[in-house]
Structure formats: structure tokens, C-alpha cells
């Protein structure tokens, strides 16, 4: 297999592995609060929102050390270990206990930081200036198939049910645990790249994350990775992109946990309210996959860079927020187990709810594919620290959003996303214009990014 073919193979395996793991985890996130609501009359007393807040809070803090951990263990084995912890978290729901639920939330927060740092390194190692956009799109599209498969199963399994029985819960979460383990095993198929580092190239990613038989060298690389993360955090480009990244964290919380809970709480949807959670996830996945395909795989045909894609993303999201505001009851995110009989400014419509799910996924793919692309382009030699900072900002904002989702009515959650999204779009534009100018100075074709 040619070197380019080997790199493309690695990107596909990376995407498929994440697809399996997040088929399980994202489906778990979509239904966690609904399942827990049905459990809170038992000895279990937990909150899906609180769990997710813990996960993303720990994830954000762990990103400060995740480049160092990846440097010591290696990116491939780091992803394998992280996948095991994802599977353990999902398995907790088979026989829930409050202490195990929150302990697993802490552990998966650490694992997620390591997983996404290693993923960013793997993506960058198998890409170059001309293929980073394509590879980001391939990875993102494969990853988002996870929303289709897991939620399709939930939709079919829970159709017509207004209460989730113990048998229903166990069947779903045993299946999701096995799926997560399959994705973890697939990481072993990723092939290592030959070391092409030029002599004296001390600042390259290979120097930071390269394997070494010397424990002392590995520790030196770990320290170097930590120092690089701190240094990059205060660069102008990273500070500007952090606003955009913060917005993706808020949106991640909304479509992966809050919106499904809202749909499941609307009594006007009748016996379909629980199965519609799964159908919503499917439509989010369709939007994500479509966006990843169009804006990633076809990126080389664009003559104007990343800004038009991000502009489309924010417009699509604003339309979705407007429709959700009119369609969903204001108390839906914090409704009790019995649901809510309130109506917003229109009678709740299943069709509008599913359209909004699609728009949420499409807009999210616009932002994430372009963020992955610009980070890989700007920080090709410092990929692990750069992606660690990206996940740090995204996850700490997701943690904050999951926390306030326990208390804020729907209208305030939507308003926060509108404001942060507006400013995040402007800051992304600023960085992209700078990247285009730098590329033009090198005599490269702007459309190649």
C-alpha cells in the first residue's frame, strides 16, 4: 500500500472506531436523563445533566495533562485505554448505582481528554496541508454515523412506550456496551507512520509524541507537551478560536442532551414522545453526515476557504433556535417525570421538531469540520497541544451548559447560544483571514485549505 493509501486507511479506521464508540456514548447521552427520570423512584438518585456536567468539567481540566499522557503511552494505545473507560461508563446503566454512576462520570472525563487529544494527533499525522480538509470531513462524516445507528435502535425499541421498564433499559445498554467495545478493538488496526522528522526538527509533533524506549525521553516529551499547551493557549489565533470553540461546546450540550429531553417531555406528542428522542438523534446524525460530506470531502472545490461554511452554519442554527423557541414549551428542559402539558407559541409539531434536529446537526458539522481543518492547518507541528486546548475550551463550556440546564428555561438557553454563536463566528472569520493571508504569502492556493 502506498504511503498516501496507508494514511487514508488510517483516517477511515479512525472514523469507524469513533463511530462505534460514539454510537454507544451519544445514544447513552440522548436517553440518559429520560432513563434516570424513570429510575428516581428507586434507590438510584442521580441526574443525567449533573453527570454530563461532571464529565465535561473533568474533561476540560484533564486536557491540561492529556498531551503529556499521550506522549508517554502513545496515541494508539491511549485511544484503546480510553475506549475501555467509555464502555465501562455505558455499562453502569445496566445495573445503576448512584456512586458508580458519578465515579464513572469522573473517569470518562479523563478518558475523553486523552481520546480526543490522541485523535487530533492521529488526524494530523495522516494529513498534510492539501488533505487536512478532506480528511477532517471523512472523519467527521464517519463519526456522525453514530447518531444514525444508535438512535434508530432506540426509536424502534421504544416506539409506543411512555415508560422505560428495567428490561428495556438493560437490553439497550448491554447492546451499547458491546458496540463501544467493538470500536475500541478497531483502534489496533491503525498503522503506525514512519518517522519522517528531519534532523534537528525539535518542535515537530513527532518529537513531542514520538515513541521512545527511554523512559527519560518520554518524560521529557511529556513535559515539553505540557509547556507547549500553555504557550499555545495564549496565542492570538487560539484565543480567537476559543470563542468559536466555546459555541460548539454549548451546542454540543443542547443537541446531545437537552433537546432530546425536551422532546421526551412534551405530552402533546402522545405515545410517541419517548421514541421521538431516537428519531431526533437520527435527524441530527443525517445533518452531521451531510455537512461532513459536503464541506469536508468537497472542500477542494471551494475557492473561498472556510468562512462561507461557518456563515452557513450560524444561519442554519439561528433558524433552528427560532423554530425551537416557537415549537417547544419553555419548561421542557426541566419538566418532571410526568412531562409538561404547556405549549409555546404554536401547538407542538413533530415535523418541526425533527426539522430542527436536522438543522442542529447540519450547523454543528459546519463549525466542527472547519475548526478541525483550521487547527490542523495552523498547528500541523503542534497538533496534540492544539487539539487538547480545543477540547479543553469546548468541554468546559459544555460542562457549564449541562449545569445550568438543570435550572434555566428553554428561552434563556437559546439566548445564550445565539449570543456566543454570533461572536464566535466573527472571531473565526478573523483567524481565517489571517490564515489566508499567510497562505498567499507562501504562494499556495487558498482553495487547498
Automatic annotation (TrEMBL):
Name listed for the protein in its UniProt record: UNC93-like protein MFSD11
Presence of the UniProt keyword Nucleotide-binding in the record: no
Membrane topology: Multi-pass membrane protein
Compartments it resides in: Membrane
Lineage: Eukaryota, Metazoa, Chordata, Craniata, Vertebrata
Domain of life, per lineage: Eukaryota
UniProt cross-references to SUPFAM superfamilies, sorted A to Z: MFS general substrate transporter (SSF103473)
Gene3D superfamilies in the record: MFS general substrate transporter like domains
Family annotation (InterPro entries): Ion_channel_UNC-93, MFS_trans_sf, UNC-93-like_regulator
PANTHER family assigned: ET TRANSLATION PRODUCT-RELATED, UNC93-LIKE PROTEIN MFSD11
Ranges annotated as spanning the membrane: 7-26, 46-65, 100-118, 138-158, 170-190, 238-256, 276-297, 309-328, 386-404, 410-431
Keywords from the named record: Glycoprotein, Membrane, Transmembrane, Transmembrane helix
Organism: Emberiza fucata
Cellular component, GO annotation: membrane
Pfam families named in the record: UNC-93
Similarity remark: Belongs to the unc-93 family.
Amino acid at each position: 500500500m502506498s504511503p498516501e493509501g496507508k494514511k487514508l486507511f488510517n483516517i477511515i479506521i479512525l472514523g469507524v472506531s469513533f463511530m462505534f464508540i460514539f454510537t454507544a456514548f451519544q445514544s447513552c447521552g440522548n436517553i440518559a436523563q429520560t432513563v434516570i427520570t424513570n429510575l428516581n423512584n428507586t434507590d438510584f438518585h442521580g441526574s443525567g445533566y449533573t453527570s454530563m456536567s461532571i464529565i465535561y468539567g473533568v474533561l476540560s481540566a484533564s486536557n491540561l495533562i492529556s498531551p503529556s499522557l499521550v506522549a508517554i503511552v502513545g496515541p494508539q494505545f491511549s485511544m484503546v485505554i480510553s475506549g475501555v473507560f467509555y464502555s465501562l461508563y455505558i455499562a453502569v446503566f445496566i445495573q445503576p448505582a448512584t456512586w458508580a454512576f458519578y465515579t464513572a462520570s469522573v473517569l470518562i472525563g479523563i478518558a475523553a481528554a486523552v481520546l480526543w487529544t490522541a485523535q487530533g494527533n492521529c488526524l494530523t499525522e495522516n494529513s498534510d496541508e492539501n488533505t487536512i480538509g478532506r480528511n477532517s470531513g471523512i472523519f467527521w462524516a464517519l463519526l456522525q454515523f453514530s447518531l444514525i445507528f444508535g438512535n434508530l435502535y432506540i426509536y424502534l425499541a421504544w416506539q409506543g412506550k411512555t415508560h422505560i421498564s428495567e428490561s428495556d433499559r438493560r437490553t439497550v445498554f448491554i447492546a451499547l456496551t458491546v458496540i463501544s467495545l467493538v470500536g475500541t478493538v478497531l483502534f489496533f488496526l491503525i498503522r503506525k507512520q514512519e518517522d519522517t522528522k528531519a534532523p534537528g526538527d525539535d518542535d515537530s509533533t513527532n518529537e513531542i509524541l514520538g515513541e521512545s524506549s527511554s523512559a527519560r525521553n518520554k518524560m521529557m516529551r511529556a513535559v515539553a507537551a505540557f509547556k507547549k499547551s500553555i504557550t499555545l493557549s495564549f496565542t492570538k489565533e487560539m484565543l480567537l478560536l476559543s470563542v468559536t470553540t466555546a459555541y460548539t461546546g454549548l451546542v454540543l450540550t443542547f443537541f446531545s442532551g437537552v433537546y432530546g429531553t425536551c422532546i421526551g417531555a412534551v405530552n402533546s406528542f402522545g405515545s410517541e414522545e419517548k421514541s421521538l428522542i431516537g428519531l431526533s438523534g437520527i435527524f441530527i446524525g443525517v445533518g452531521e453526515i451531510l455537512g461532513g460530506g459536503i464541506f469536508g470531502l468537497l472542500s477542494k472545490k471551494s475557492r473561498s476557504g472556510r468562512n462561507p461554511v461557518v456563515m452557513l452554519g450560524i444561519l442554519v442554527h439561528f433558524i433552528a433556535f427560532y423554530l425551537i423557541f416557537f415549537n417547544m414549551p419553555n419548561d421542557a428542559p426541566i419538566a418532571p417525570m410526568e412531562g409538561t402539558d404547556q405549549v409555546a407559541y404554536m401547538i407542538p409539531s413533530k415535523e418541526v421538531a425533527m426539522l430542527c434536529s436536522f438543522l442542529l446537526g447540519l450547523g454543528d458539522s459546519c463549525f466542527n469540520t472547519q475548526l478541525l481543518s483550521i487547527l490542523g492547518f495552523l498547528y500541523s507541528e503542534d497538533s496534540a497541544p492544539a487539539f487538547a486546548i480545543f477540547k479543553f475550551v469546548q468541554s468546559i463550556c459544555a460542562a457549564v451548559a449541562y449545569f445550568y440546564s438543570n435550572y434555566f428555561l428553554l428561552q434563556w438557553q437559546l439566548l445564550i447560544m445565539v449570543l456566543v454563536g454570533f461572536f464566535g463566528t466573527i472571531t473565526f472569520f478573523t483567524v481565517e483571514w489571517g490564515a489566508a493571508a499567510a497562505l498567499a504569502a507562501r504562494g499556495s492556493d487558498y482553495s487547498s485549505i
